Every structure is written in C-alpha cells, then in structure tokens.
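The passage that follows is intended for readers who have already worked through the single-chain material. We present the inputs for a multi-component assembly, then the predicted structure in tokenized form, and finally a short commentary. You are encouraged to pause after the input and sketch how you expect the pieces to fit together before reading on.
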Amino acid sequence: MRAEILSIGTELLLGQITVTNASYLAQQLTTLGIDLYFVSQVGDNLERLSETLRRARDRSDIVIMTGGLGPTEDDLSREAIAAVLEETPTVDRAYEQTLRAFFASRGVEMPEHNIKQAWVLPSVTPLANPFGTAPGWWAERDGKVIVAMPGVPHEMKRMWEEEVVPRLRSRTGAVLFTRILRVAGLGESSVEERIDTLIHATNPTVATYAKRDAVDVRISAKAPTEAEAQALVAATEQQARAILGAHIFGVDADTPQSVALQLLIERHLTLATMESCSGGLLASTLTDVPGSSAAFLGGLVSYATDLKVQWGVPREIVETHGVISVETARAMAQAVRERLGADLGIGITGVAGPTLQENKPAGTVHIAVASAGRISDTSQRFRGAREEIKWRAAITAINLLRLHLLREG
Amino acid sequence: MRAEILSIGTELLLGQITVTNASYLAQQLTTLGIDLYFVSQVGDNLERLSETLRRARDRSDIVIMTGGLGPTEDDLSREAIAAVLEETPTVDRAYEQTLRAFFASRGVEMPEHNIKQAWVLPSVTPLANPFGTAPGWWAERDGKVIVAMPGVPHEMKRMWEEEVVPRLRSRTGAVLFTRILRVAGLGESSVEERIDTLIHATNPTVATYAKRDAVDVRISAKAPTEAEAQALVAATEQQARAILGAHIFGVDADTPQSVALQLLIERHLTLATMESCSGGLLASTLTDVPGSSAAFLGGLVSYATDLKVQWGVPREIVETHGVISVETARAMAQAVRERLGADLGIGITGVAGPTLQENKPAGTVHIAVASAGRISDTSQRFRGAREEIKWRAAITAINLLRLHLLREG
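Having made your guess, compare it with the prediction:
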C-alpha cells in the first residue's frame, strides 16, 4: 500500500514553521508497514492544492493531508477534496448544532464562515476532534482514501492515533508489531554501535532514533498474526536489554518523567526541587505527568542567589565554592528536601547562557539528588542554546533521580 | 518568478530527519521576493525523482534541489537532472584531479564511484563546495534553472549564500519587505474578522497565522526598492494597529515573555511567581529569555496545598473560596510578592487535569498579577490536554502581566 503526505499552508512555504507533522506521520507509516513515496507542502491556493491532491490520489492509495481545516477562507482542504472527488458539500446539521453550542458556551455567536467545519461529502466519514472545532475527514471511494486532519499537532496526533490508525490497520494484511525501548545517558551513535549486530537484521528490523528526551530503539516485526510478530520482537528485545541494561528506562510511551514518578509513587516517596539555571523547567516537566501530585510536593526557582541562602543553602558553601558548583547543587538538594518535608530533593545550578557566570561557560551544570543519608550528583557541560541547556539539565536530573532510586533498590 | 523546492533522500520519508533545509530555503526565498508554490520530499529512486523534477521544471522557473549529490548509488540527483534535460554527463578532468588530490591528502585512494562528483552537463555550471567533496550544479537552459546543492545543512547554506543568492539576485527585479505583528488575547478567526478589509488587499498582502504563543498578522509588500516596500508595509501596519490596539504586543521575533520582561527591565521592576497547576512552566517560560535574571527573582511551585499556606496564602481564603478560586490566585500573587521582596507577583491556580479537583473541571484556571496596591486577575476555562492547559495558563499570565504594566503607564 502506497501513501503520500500533503502538508497544507502558505506558512509552510514561507519557512515560518518546520514541517514536524510530516516527520511524525512518516515515522508512523513506517511502523504500520505502509510505504511512503512522496511528501509535499502546498500553499493555501485552491488550484494548486487541487492539482497536487489529484496527482497524489492518482499515484497513491492513501493521501494524508494535514492543515487547511480551519474556518477561514484560507482553509481550503475541504474545497480541494470536493473538487477532486467531484462531490458537493452538504452541512451535517447535527454537527452544526454541536458547533453552535460550543460557541454559545463561550458566550459568543458562531461566525458564519465556521459553518464549513460542519460540511460533509457523500464519500466522507467525519473524524472526531475533541481538542478543536475542526473534525477530520476520511474520504474513501474507488479503493482510494484521502485522510484530512487539522494542522495543529496535538489535534492531529490524537486524531491519527484514535481515528485513523485503527482504520488503516484494518486495510493492511500482515500484522506489524513494534516495541520501542527508551534509552537514557547514551548518545544515538553510541547506542547504534553497541547494538550493531541487531541493526543488520531484517525481521525484526531495529533502528535508532534520537528524540528530544531520549534515544529510541525501535524493534518492528511483521508476521501473519500478532502473537508471532510479538514473539519475534520479544527475542530481539531480550538481546537489546542484555546489551543496554539500566540505560533502558522504559518502553513505548514512557517518558523519563513518567518512569521516575512511577518509581516514587510505588515506593510512597515524595519529591521537592530547587533549581536555578533550569528556571522551573524541571518542576514543569515533572508536573506534565498526570497524577504527579501524588509524589511531587513543590519546587523553588531560586534565580536570585540570595533566595538560595534564604531557602537554606549555607552562605559559606556559596562563598567557598561559588554558586555554580557541585557543592551548591548538593546543598540545594538537601535544603529543599528539608524545607519542604520531602523524602527526596533535587538541586540544579548552572549557567544557562548566553553569557558567562562566575567565569564559567554557558552549559556548565551541576545536579544533585538527596535522600535521607545519601546524595548522588553529576556535573555536565551541555552544548546548545539557552533553552536546550535548560532542557538537558532537567532531563539529566530526572535520569539521575531514577538511577538514585534504583540504587536504593 | 516561481520557485519550487525538492528535498531528496529516503531518510526524509522515514521521518528520521525533519526537513529543516526546506524551511531555511523557504524563508530565504521569501526574503528574495521569489514566490514558492511547491515543496516536496522524494526518496532515492531515479524514476520517481526524475518524474518529480520534470514536473517541477515544467511549472516553475527555478527548481532548488538539496541532497542526492553524494558518491553512492543512492545519490541520484545528477542522474535525474541529466535525464530531465536529456543531456549526457562528461567528467570534468580538472575537478577529477582535485578530488583525487583530496583523497590522496587523506592517504586513501579515491573510490571509483566518487568520479560522478566530477560530472558536468553542457548546461551545468558547477558551484564550489569548500566544506565537502560534492560540488553543486547550476543547470540553466531555456530560461529555466535547476539548482542542486548538498543535503548537509552547513554545506548547503554556505553554497546557497555564496554561490546561489548572487545569481538569483541578478535575475529578480523586486524587493520584498515583511513585518509580523504579534497578537495576544484574541483567537485567529477573531483577528481575521477584525482586519477583514486589510486581508483582501494585494500589495501589501496580509495574512493571519495561529502560533503556539500568539496569533501572527503578516504584512508583506513588494516594490522596486526596499524603502518603497517598507513604506507600503508601514501604511498597512498603522491601519492594523488602529484596529487591534493593545492586543498587539510585539513584532517579528518578539515573544510574550521577551516583551513582558523588557517592560519590567525598562521600569527597573522585579517579579516573582507562585504557581500550582502550571507547575513551574510560567517561571520556565520567563527564564527562556536571555537576561531575564535582571527582573525575575524566583518562583514557588506550590503543588501541595499546605505549601501555599506555608508560603503566605491565608488559610481562611483557601477554606472559604477553595484552592481553585480567583481569591486564592490573588492571595498567591500578593504572598509571593511580599515573601520574595519583588515589585510584582503572579499567582496561578487551577486544574491541569485530566481529573476534576474540588469538583471543578480540567482547564479551570485563575490568574492574578499584584503590584503595590493593585491587583489584576482573570479566570479562564482552557481546552485540551494537560500540557496545553499548563501552556495556556502560563502564556495568559504573561499577557496579563503586560496589560497590568501598561495600565500603570
């Protein structure tokens, strides 16, 4: 089965947005065992969009569109699909009522041009979008499918996972089973070198991907049944685990923060944080996890040095070793643990950049995790811009927390 | 003049690489006033690549290719250009010697398949690549141009700037000038409705884009000189400002946080935050701005209710109105302001979800900004997943801070 991706929007052609939806969908299609031959971006122009869509539908079995489903005149995906299929839109009265109710609940009248979000065509099944007002379209005719989804990434991803993937699975014959092993504390090329022998196999295929929060090892097997595909994957997973050990922190949708919080919650432990250079990003990343309040009590963002002392870091440590020192990080972890009455404390101090601090270069970061009677720490030099350094600091702290907990057994 | 971008490489279709070259080139073309109508990614397959290139050359004046210039059998850009132009490659003997010398200098013999990096066609002018072994191609015939550049970003950018841009400039007459007005506190369709009359103009063109942190109004004008293009944009900007007023918080690369911090720094004011449902994201967003330490003292993430009281929120307010209340948000803003000795304090309390809290639904958020003797507040109901609610809370707080400061004059 051949697929093709069209990303819609003039902003893509102005380079104001990087085409991350297309990358996400490309990876997803690989996982589903669907071949992707073409990816295009096209602007908000009905003629060019229709031309591109018509050619895509001629040469591919599935055309996946993102964007162009908003309510404005620039949003032309529905119009283009109607033109290519030569079908006439009608208004779905039930969805029109839903739309009007949505606007009424916000105390405003629905602008009349929003009505086109309630359009359907004879070949179209609408796809639910609980995160926005634009439903997607599954347009199927003559054995070919056009899928239209919103361009807003979180709306698109939810629709893809819940609405599109199940429909696609029922069209592909072989079953593909994929497991992702999530790896912390090693770079992608280092992971690749260690599992080199696995990477050259064909079923399962094994590939590495550098993600923002970890390196993924994706193991995918195709087989006539799910059980057979799973068995193939399980054997390779065992080999990978023997090589990568505790660097593997989780699987599939696990994140460093979800795994660390899970460990805390299982052990009935509580956590508090004191951060300076990461500026609250550690606390924010931890609280991205639903249910994090069961373990995370709170955090201090001690941007001004005086606040660190006010919050319990001994002044002589700061004066002797400097604010940017592993000693200060350790004192921060201990101080916040005691101050907030938590079982564990994390301290982060460093230079987010772009300028030097205490003559230490941007990217210098010290991190400590303290529990009763024990402290783990790490000192790093991260590369990149300010936001990247903050992010590396937060994610490294979360990994240090996990390793600290594992060592306590 | 119409341009089209082709990014070559199967890895692009596997989603392993985000197409950053295309975004960069799209921005560059905008600046040069060259219209970009299509962007595509195509795999390392001669038939599909030639088909795509032929169609691109038919409908556009300039086709810009990146990738496919390496020495391996998978690198097929030269072969595709030769096929489309129906010209036969010959080896440029001088460049062949350069290549052989390059390998000799590294103590290895040149692999014979590398010879194709010395190919030329009758219509081709090679483009120098000091950062790699693959020269680019400028293939010009019948008034149409194909530019082929390496896919490695730093090789491509150097070749683009030094070799391609000067050649393109000599072909274009007009200059394009663009200004982006950044808008807070209004949705995209509401912005579009208000500036409806401007959107239907043709020079300048005006378009709206929903970004994660704001709505952008992009005004672009073409003229024979930069000064004339700027004057056209300035007239439209004035009209847009008359309509959108204080909703416009900045221009071009401004962010809500950079603008709010700039206001604080200009007025020599300091800021502290106390957040619960946003979990540190407000502090983190503020500290993304380089130099934020000049105004931002620090923040408290009071995830546990007890911490709010410990940090100065009167217990009777929490007990009377609930943790999720505008009264608690106001008390948080005042308490953190006093506790950290800052000129201004921000308080955020709400339900990040997915579960109810105090019987209030996910997305309920109360925000307050306090300065000496004055408090501003807002109560909102945000939609979306947990991370989206946290983000809307943080960005709404930053906008409330800006409006609070503007009202103080």
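Commentary: The longest strand of chain A covers residues 175-183. The mean pLDDT of chain A is 92. How closely did your sketch match?
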